[in-house]
Amino acid sequence: MISLRTIAKILSSPIAFPGILFILYGFGVDHTHLLGPPGSPTVDEKFRVTGLPPTLFPPISVAVGLLKVTVLLNNTYFKSKTLSKVLFYISVPGFALVAHSHNLVGLPMQDNVPCVVMPLLLGIIAFSDEEKSKEKRK
């Protein structure tokens, strides 16, 4: 039977795609229009409502992108329990800020569902064990 942790890894790993877009955005290649439907607020608009100076947008975008890609890498290659916890602890305030910026730009509440689900998935990954390791202990 497939474990809850495995399901959480499968559902959280696709965050690497927007991570790559954020890294590109940080280096001046903006394909972030792929993140939402036409007419939705841009990543630049979402950054602006946070009150951060525009000069910080690129380095923050690269850092956020790298963290999102790290989720996939940790789920598939590193498999580090410590890194899983670090990603979870960073995700809670990070996604809270994303939800706040979504509210400020007038996005509907359903657009904030990933801001709740992703930290939950990362928490499941960080604080649960693989089924195989439980079987080995018996």
SSE blueprint:
Blueprint: H1 4-12, H2 16-26, H3 43-48, H4 57-78, H5 81-104, H6 113-127, H7 131-137
Helix pairs in contact: 1-6, 2-4, 5-6
Describe the model:
With 138 residues, this protein is mostly helical. Helices cover 68% and strands 0% of the residues. It has seven helices and no strands. Helix 1 (4-12) packs across helix 6, helix 2 (16-26) packs antiparallel against helix 4 and helix 5 (81-104) packs antiparallel against helix 6 (113-127). The longest helix is centred in the last third of the chain and has 24 residues, at 81-104. It is globular, with a radius of gyration of 16 Å.
Key words describing this protein structure:
138 residues
Give the structure's gist in a few sentences.
With 138 residues, this protein is mostly helical. The chain contains 7 helices and no strands.
**Share of helix among residues?**
55-70%
Number of strands: 0
Q: Structural class, please?
A: mainly alpha
Could you name the ranges where pLDDT drops below 50 across 5 or more consecutive residues?
none
**What sort of overall outline do the alpha carbons produce when their principal axes are compared?**
globular
The whole-number mean of residue pLDDT values reads 93
> What kind of sheet is the major sheet?
none
Q: What is the string of helix and strand elements?
A: HHHHHHH
Give the C-alpha Rg.
Answer: 16 Å
Strand content: under 5%
Intertermini distance: 18 Å
